[in-house]
Amino acid sequence: MNYLKTTSIEKGSSVQLAYNDYGNGQPIILIHGWPLNFAMWEQQIAHLVDAGFRAITYDRRGFGESSKPWNGYTYNDLAIDLNDLIEGLELNNIILAGFSMGGGEVARYIGKYGTKRLSKAILISSVVPFMMKTEDNPDAFDASVFDGMKEGISKDRAGFFEEFGKNFVNLTKNEERVSQAQVNYNWYVACSASKKATLDCVDAFGKTDFRADCEKFDIPTLVVHGDDDEIVPIDVSGKKAAGIIKDAKFEIIKDAPHGLTFTHYKELNKILIDFIQN
Q1: Is there a catalytic annotation at residue 66?
Q2: Cβ atoms of residues 47 and 269 within 8 Å
Q3: Planar angle of CA 130, 190, 29, nearest 5 degrees
Q4: Is 135 exposed, middle or buried (0-12, 13-18, 19+ CB in 10 A)?
Q5: 258 belongs to the catalytic site
């Protein structure tokens, strides 16, 4: 594990991002979902490296082995962290891929910094473009859903993530594709994150509007979503994102849940390689 000091300072110390950097070739940055860390990309990293790419993963602030500051969990803050990583590693011609909450970092990075350092973008089971119901976004979740999640986490974080982890992979439908042990491990990873970060990120991914960011995508973009996603339903997110982002390639993985990096990794990996090699 490597560590990079960001430009963010809290109590006199730099917030540090823990990251892994494998392989050579064109860089692809993989941004994990909530409430996990870089380990969720285990089935993708080796596949990408073997295909000749440089796979870079990092733990979002507050998660995994990165610093766990009290503040800084808005998408503007997270986009700055991502930019610090890109500049610190002197990366260009990047393929930027985000899963679930990580899709928001992809969108906000492009909205804030543009695409001069990027070659392609990928959104997987992403929360983009806007998860919260408003007058101009009626087919989405009421704000009370996210407030309820925070209440559950505050009351019994371990208990909340035990049930959430099963729904993450639609466990009863995918017992032949993912083990209970993997679900248990995901629970451990979730519980290892900062409670403050876990709570603040619910507001970030649940209530941030990325529609204006999506309109700034001007590079080849892949949107991948499972049609059995019970956490971030395809009609709320994937279909809408593909409709806003100009010329986006939209791939639907049949019967795949939210956590398709675990359950449908073979199908996902083929889609990723086909997109980034062409």
Answers
A1: no
A2: yes
A3: 60
A4: exposed
A5: yes
Q: Which one of the listed residues 59, 77, 81, 229 is annotated catalytic?
A: 229
Q: Could you tell me the pTM of the whole model?
A: 0.97
CB contact at 8 A, 248 and 128: no
Please name which of 80, 23, 28 lies closest in space to residue 222, comparing C-alpha atoms: 28
Residue the block writes with tokens 């976004």 = 137
pLDDT digits (tens, 9 = 90+) for 130-176: 999 999 999 999 999 999 999 999 999 999 999 999 999 999 999 99
Is there a contact between 253 and 271 (Cβ–Cβ < 8 Å)? yes
Would you kindly state where each structural domain of the chain is located, as residue ranges? 2-276
Of residues 8, 66, 67, 100, which has the active-site annotation? 100
What amino acid occupies position 115? T
What are the φ/ψ torsions at residue 55 (nearest 5 degrees)? -95, 120
Fold (CATH) for 2-276: Rossmann fold (3.40.50)
Residue pair 220/276 in contact (Cβ under 8 Å)? The answer is: no
**CB 216, CB 114: distance < 8 Å:** yes
C-alpha distances in angstroms, 27 versus 66, 84, 271?
A: 21, 15, 17
Among the listed residues 93, 131, 81, 99, the one whose alpha carbon sits nearest the alpha carbon of residue 30: 99
